[in-house]
Amino acid sequence: MMETTEKQNGILEGVIWKQLLLFFFPILIGTFFQQLYNTVDTVIVGQFAGKEALSSVGGSSAQIINMVVGFFTGLTAGGTVLISQAYGASHRQRLEDALHTSYAFGILGGIGLGILGVAAAPSILHAMNTPSELMQMSTLYIRIYFSGLVFVFIYNMGAAILRAIGDSKRPLYYLVVCCMVNIVLDLLLVLYFGLGVLGVAAATLVSQAISAGMVTWALMRKVDCMKLSVRRIRIHREVLKNILQIGFPSGLQASMYSISNMIVQAALNLLGVDTMAAWTAYGKIDSVFWMINSSFGIALTTFVGQNFGAGKWERVKKGTRVCLGMAVGTAVCLTAVLMTAGRFLLGIFTGDAAVVEIGLTMMRNIAPAFVMFVFIEIFSGSLRAQGYTFVTTVISVLGVCVFRIIWVSMITPGKGLTWIVACYPISWILCAVLVSGYYFYKQKRIILRMEGRNAT
């Protein structure tokens, strides 16, 4: 048996809001630095290589990358839920098996999807109506990124494992170091050597390789409750089955968001380079909300997973309520900032006045509905940590992806930018209502079932 988890991180016994925030802030700062990889790329190419390069690094390229990475990140939820539950229950063998299976899965997935992404990049970009003048640079950026996809997968899996046992600080430290490396390489390769898109892609690849190495070293040398061994990295069939049962719906849900974004991106691409550049710039500002929201979700998933494994049902319910309140308050404050400082924020990414005006239109139509997505993230994360993902995935597939496909293909043709981006707030409201209703229905039944199982 392991040393008691209460002594190690306090998640099982400490004041709930304090524990959530102690876990949330390192995740948020780490997520910020992870996003900074691509944000620095877009700022540098936007200011020093032109709006075409900005559109190539963001635009369609970013949507494709987000879809693949988002799908895998969702899959990692299966491993992290198993690890957090085993850690809360102090079960060493289950912890070790989940660790090595998760790592093997990350390596194989990174290699396989990396090869597929390199080969399919031109076809996907054509399908997304990418302008011909951007095809060469966009293809180059995607191919370099996907050639190092295994490093992205290894880091994300390793960082998720550390967070699952309550360690959100080490992933943060590693990202800070690697982000600094990325910034230095960006400036060197773009400003000094003039490599443009090639330079920022190469800088990102090197930085991600460093982060993967650091998180792997930590799991091999610095974690007491479990130890990663290269010789033991393999697939345990039963563990993989459990990982996929929990993680595949989460990965599908994440990819559905990305696929729907790609469909919207394809519609926006038809409006020209200025609109693509504005969407890229707005997306970097918009990402602040997603960083905060997902950080609350990750913190809650670890909190609920460990307490669920330990049988602390009241902390599961109260932790979800507390996290929801904090996330809603943060979303409201952030929306107010974006609505008042939007022009200044967009100006950081581009000096083109037309691009800024288009970006402001996007912001004013989307940002006021941020708060609705909080309910989807928090309630889905709580249920995911308890091993229930299927219904929330179905809701997201229908309410987000299918709805946006219908909206873009049948409602918006010929109606312009405002109508296209309106699919975001409408789909969030629809999904928030359905996910919230399902959470309150299901949560009571989960706890009654687990209490009955423990009683027998």
In terms of topology, how is this protein built?
Layout: H1 5-9, H2 16-48, H3 51-57, H4 59-88, H5 92-127, H6 132-147, H7 149-164, H8 169-192, H9 196-221, H10 237-269, H11 273-309, H12 313-347, H13 353-366, H14 370-385, H15 390-411, H16 417-421, H17 423-455
| Biggest pleated sheet | none
DSSP helix count? 17
SSE sequence, one letter per element: HHHHHHHHHHHHHHHHH
Number of strands: 0
User: Percent of residues in beta strands?
Assistant: under 5%
Distance between the termini: 23 Å
- Unreliable residue runs: 1-9
Task: Characterize the overall form.
Answer: globular
Estimate the helix proportion, in percent.
over 70%
**Which structural class matches the secondary elements?**
mainly alpha
Determine Rg (CA atoms, Å): 21 Å
Give the overall pLDDT as a whole number: 83
What oligomeric state do these chains adopt? single chain
What can you tell me about this protein's structure?
α11 (273-309) runs parallel beside α14 (370-385). It is globular and about 60 Å long. 85% of the residues lie in helices and 0% in strands. Residues 1-9 have low confidence and may be disordered. The protein has helices at 5-9, 16-48, 51-57, 59-88, 92-127, 132-147, 149-164, 169-192, 196-221, 237-269, 273-309, 313-347, 353-366, 370-385, 390-411, 417-421, 423-455. The chain is mostly helical and 456 residues long.
Keywords:
single chain, 456 residues
Give me a quick take on this structure.
The chain has 456 residues and is mainly alpha-helical. The protein is built from 17 helices and no strands.
